[in-house]
Amino acid sequence: MSTRQHTDQQYEAQLKQLHLKILEMGGLVEKQIAHAVQALVDRDDALANETSQRDGTVNRFDVEIDELCLRLLALHQPAARDLRLITTALKITTDLERIGDMAVNLCERVLELNQEPQLKPFIDIPRMADVAQRMLRESLDAFVREEVDLALDVCRRDDEIDGLTHQIFRELLSYMAQDPQTISRAIRIMFVAKYIERIADHSTNIAEMVVFMVKGKSIRHLDTVPGSI
Fold this sequence. Notes:
229 residues; mainly alpha; Methane Monooxygenase Hydroxylase, Chain G, domain 1; 7 helices; globular
């Protein structure tokens, strides 16, 4: 085998490893969200603490993927599509790490809420979290499969999350207006809703970067999501 063939095979193997690591990190982060919301609904301090402690693993993935991307850039000097792939991967890991942080923040609010009687059954929060998790999963699927239409679908779903956030806020404001003793609990639940909204925002960021990676066109900061590209 020539040196060129060996180098090309090594390069392809590293690109495959990059895809796998991002999917693995994404799977872990998605599990973090699910466990944080489960801890909220079940009022489970132990699960909240376990979820927070796993954030170190998320951070290790962030460092490992960054190092792999930098090696690919330094050793192979990729151009065009591969360059967009690697720079997109660098940005995706930043969003995944921040989603992991949101899960930890959510767990912190869970521990605080569990010190007081439950304000209300959690119905809209888990529903909102399900949408955000699906957005994350599909944005990563779009990245691996390089599917622009799937990425655009994720971007459009952000409006659904915004609508649920406003609905939750209105309901909580009503609780606070009727009984000032509910204010501290209602504010913490508002924070929870805001964390989930941020998770959806980061998932949308990933989807927008997939569009750039595949098409070389940026759809960030557009007022409306294009029907197709």
